[in-house]
Design a protein that fits this description.
two-stranded antiparallel ribbon; mainly alpha; single chain; 320 residues; two-stranded antiparallel sheet
């Protein structure tokens, strides 16, 4: 028994180290994306003063702020801060979402890994989110519901104020004729923009700053996770509330999604659907599917799933 406990503690320490490393790696990739990769392009200047002077001459406009010329170090810190205004709020949103799942799993003594962040050093997001893995067939119906619902609710508790403050400090301007990347606006974001800035005229768009973009990603990831399919949060919720009928709902959604992409010619979610189908559309049974949820949990579950109506966008990225 003592050897087993020692093995378990060693395994948890390895998981924690990996979790911290992935968190730091994702913080780096999201900061780079949020800064337009400028710190990476300028990095050689930190190692050699002559290279720094050459970079300042080459990227002269980068080193001007409010009409004042900046030193290389000031310019570098400016871009780091620009990146962090996106990565900081986004990492907080993702962390709160995953900790919601993790802490509920700890509460119910359901085996679960620490949150694992997924770095992706590519625009537009710099990450593929974060996940935790939990023991299959350990949680009963009510425990599974609580673990599933707490993640998106905890994430939204941070996402909504970040989104509000970001949109409030962003600006609306005309859409440039070429090379502008616009992000689709679900109903929630449309309402918030209209509330803060008033109606947006045709040919104009909101140019999002770092916090606004982090809030947009928070809404996007929450809506994706609430799709009622397989091992997604929405799949857990619909299975605990509907039982095996949730399998038919999931398969119907997959068919409808594929048909919609074919008819519209927009394949934004094809990778998402393929990953879901590979991991399984059907939800496995809980330890005890007969445990009642009660009326309050049903209400909370359906209200949480209703976020899809205001948070999902069929066209996440629009190129002009």
């Amino acid at each position: 028994m003592a050897e087993r406990h020692a093995w378990y503690r060693k395994r948890r320490r390895r998981q924690l180290r990996l979790s911290v490393l992935l968190f730091l790696a994702t913080l780096v990739t999201t900061t780079l994306v949020g800064s337009g990769f400028a710190p990476l392009a300028l990095f050689p200047g930190l190692l050699d003063e002559q290279i720094a002077d050459a970079l300042v001459r080459e990227h002269r406009l980068w080193f001007i702020e409010n009409g004042r010329p900046l030193s290389f170090q000031e310019g570098y810190l400016k871009f780091l801060w620009q990146g962090f205004t996106y990565s900081g709020p986004l990492m907080l949103i993702l962390l709160c979402h995953e900790l919601g799942h993790f802490l509920q799993a700890v509460r119910y003594r359901v085996p679960a890994t620490y949150p694992f962040f997924i770095p992706l050093p590519l625009p537009p997001f710099g990450t593929m989110g974060a996940v935790i893995a939990q023991g299959r067939g350990v949680a009963d119906r009510r425990q599974m519901f609580d673990i599933a619902v707490t993640g998106p609710l905890a994430g939204l508790a941070v996402t909504l104020p970040v989104l509000y403050l970001g949109i409030r400090s962003s600006y609306i301007d005309v859409i440039l004729p070429h090379g502008v990347q616009e992000f689709g606006e679900p109903l929630l974001i449309q309402w918030m923009i209209a509330w803060i800035h008033g109606p947006v005229a045709d040919g104009q768009m909101l140019y999002m700053n770092g916090p606004a973009m982090a809030g947009w990603v928070g809404v996007f990831i929450t809506a994706l996770n609430l799709l009622p399919v397989g091992q997604l949060d929405g799949g857990h919720l619909t299975y605990t509330m509907l039982g095996k009928a949730a399998h038919w709902l999931a398969m119907g959604l997959i068919v409808a999604g594929l048909a919609a992409m074919y008819l519209t010619g927009s394949f934004s979610y094809v990778l998402m659907l393929l990953l879901v189908m590979m991991t399984g559309v059907r939800h496995p049974p809980t330890r005890d599917d007969t445990v009642p949820l009660g009326t309050t949990r049903h209400i909370i579950g359906w209200l949480t799933l209703s976020f899809l109506v205001i948070g999902f966008t069929p066209t996440p990225i629009i190129l002009h």
